[in-house]
Amino acid sequence: MARQPTKKKRPLGKTKSKAAPPIKARPIDLYYWPTPNGWKISIMLEECGLPYKVRPVNLSKGEQFEPAFLKISPNNRMPAIVDPEGPGGKPISIFEAGAILQYLGRKTGKFYPKDERARAEVEQWLFWQAGGLGPMAGQAHHFRRYAPEKLRYAIDRYTDECNRLYGVMDTRLKDRDFLAGDYSIADMACVGWAKYWERQGQDINEFPRVKRWLDRMKARPAVDRGLHIRVEEASKVDMHDPNVRAVLFGQRAR
């Protein structure tokens, strides 16, 4: 009779155990609408590889004024996020795109340097966008495309200011690939506005360094993904509808 193989005995006190499955991070809720401000955060989340869930905020229907959203974003503006795994493992909500970018940069250690000198460089250009390029480009969009009257003074005022800002950016990019040296949240903040240079009455060929930077940005896979998050409802908004215009352009204190 063939001899049966004997099982090797394990040493006492030792048991065979399976490796614990990796704990998956809970997704961040991104309150979003496809605009240059919304893209700042979708791009950063894509670049960082963080899991997130898009929660559309239909601005044309006034969803930004709903009480549940105002608890997250008291300025009734998107983007905003809720991170279920915030500081200390507790949820945190954050509004204002610049603040969100800084938070995600600190959370992940990416695109927002820890070194104070390098961080100050990034912050200068982040706030340059928040206080300059974004608001001025937004006003140019409004008076060139949406204002019911073509007000020459307003059109010239904001078109010229955008031109000045593109000149500042072009000079800045003279000896560097990105605004703060290395690729950072400052670049992510600017790309959504810069891609609409034509709406702002600009000729991108007048700013060759900005053009190269913009091409470099759009070639990044994460930027491309962040810029192309589809929200079906957004494609159906009729900007000529007086009800839509009243919601978007007729806001006062509530």
Please provide a written account of the structure.
With 254 residues, the protein is an alpha+beta fold. The chain has nine helices and four strands. It has helices at 36-48, 67-70, 97-108, 116-146, 152-172, 185-194, 208-218, 221-227, 242-249; strands spanning 28-32, 52-56, 80-83, 92-95. Helix 1 (36-48) links the parallel strand 1 and strand 2 (52-56). Helix 4 (116-146) runs antiparallel to helix 5. It is globular. Mean pLDDT is 93; it is low at 10-17.
* Strand-pairing-aware structural class: alpha+beta
Helix content: 40-55%
Oligomeric description of these chains: single chain
Number of helices: 9
- What is the count of structural domains? 2
Could you please say which CATH topology of the largest domain applies here?
A: Glutaredoxin
CATH architecture of the largest domain: 3-Layer(aba) Sandwich
User: Strands across the major sheet, in which order?
Assistant: 2-1-3-4
Q: How would you spell out the order of helices and strands?
A: EHEHEEHHHHHHH
Which regions have little confidence, pLDDT < 50, spanning 5+ residues? Answer: 10-17
* Sheet of most strands: 4 strands, mixed
